[in-house]
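Module 6 notes. Inverse folding takes a fixed backbone as the condition and produces residue identities as the prediction. Think of it as a translation problem where the source language is geometry and the target language is the twenty amino acids. Below is one complete input and output pair. Work through it position by position during the lab.
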């Protein structure tokens, strides 16, 4: 008999080392490969079966480039380089390998040449491979999504430019409208004031008695002119509000004077409708803090509405209290 204890221990230690080696490889999500000097596969770990759906043993003896080829990209060399002649290591090159269903898998392949430790003769290559197909597909999807987002962003920028241009045009148009209405209102008020003044003088018969028919005409002219003046004032106020130029000047005013001015404007219309406006006078001692023009305009609008909605033969008035 022969004592084979040492040989048996060596075999067990080798088996344990192989087990540890395979466990490390599995935990690293890589598979290991090895070729001879002719680049024929002499070893490949079982992890490759997940990528190619092929038993590792069926690959033994096959040439490395029978399994696939490197991706032909600028700067990385040819798809099937002469590794046996180059004897150069490579790292992370994409190796395109069709699987059992003819789907191309992208493998990040790393390899180093192996030499005999005594003679220095080239013995083949050893290396690792990592399936990066899903990572590549995810990058493609992310790139497409980014391109779509950039396209949408470009369209939004273009739309914003169009909106900015439209806004500027609208602002110019609004400014032109405001300036036109403001100038028109000011230009029309001057002749209207003259018309109103001559009409009031004629109604009061300052230059002598008038035919009742002509007196009626002047009253109509006076009422229509004031109506048009109110419209122009409303337009001018709207223009001032739009352009943020409306101002209020507050100071002490006698309410009776402002009411008298407002009543004189609506007196002709009130007389035509047989409406008594005598009661539109408050006590003379009333003094308030207000803008004279705005106050007169407010009171005039109230009195105009009172004349408009009061039946013929009625009366309108103002009740002012402290």
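Target side of the pair, the amino acids:
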């Amino acid at each position: 008999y022969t004592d084979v204890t040492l040989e048996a221990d060596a075999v067990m230690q080798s088996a344990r080392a192989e087990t540890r080696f395979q466990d490390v490889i599995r935990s690293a999500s890589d598979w290991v490969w090895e070729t001879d000097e002719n680049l024929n596969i002499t070893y490949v770990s079982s992890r490759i079966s997940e990528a190619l759906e092929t038993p590792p043993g069926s690959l033994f003896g096959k040439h490395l480039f029978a399994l696939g080829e490197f991706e032909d990209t600028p700067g990385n060399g040819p798809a099937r380089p002469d590794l046996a002649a180059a004897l150069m290591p490579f790292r992370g090159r994409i190796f395109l390998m069709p699987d059992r269903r003819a789907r191309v898998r992208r493998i990040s392949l790393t390899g180093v040449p192996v030499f005999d430790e005594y003679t220095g003769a080239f013995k083949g290559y050893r290396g690792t491979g990592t399936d990066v197909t899903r990572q590549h597909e995810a990058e493609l999807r992310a790139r497409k999504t980014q391109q779509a987002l950039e396209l949408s962003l470009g369209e939004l920028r273009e739309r914003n430019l169009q909106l900015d241009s439209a806004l500027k045009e609208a602002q110019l148009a609004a400014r032109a409208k405001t300036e036109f209405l403001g100038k028109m209102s000011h230009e029309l008020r001057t002749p209207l004031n003259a018309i109103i003044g001559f009409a009031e003088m004629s109604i009061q018969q300052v230059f002598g008695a008038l035919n009742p028919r002509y007196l009626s005409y002047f009253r109509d002219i006076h009422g229509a002119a004031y109506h048009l003046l109110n419209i122009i004032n409303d337009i001018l106020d709207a223009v001032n509000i739009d352009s943020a130029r409306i101002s209020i000047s507050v100071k002490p005013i006698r309410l009776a004077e402002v009411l008298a001015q407002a009543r004189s404007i609506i007196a002709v219309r009130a007389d035509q409708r047989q409406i008594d406006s005598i009661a539109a006078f408050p006590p003379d001692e009333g003094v308030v803090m207000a803008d004279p023009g705005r106050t007169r305009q407010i009171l005039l609008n109230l009195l105009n509405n009172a004349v408009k909605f009061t039946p013929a033969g009625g009366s309108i008035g103002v009740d002012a209290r402290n």
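Reference fact for the lab report: The mean pLDDT is 82.
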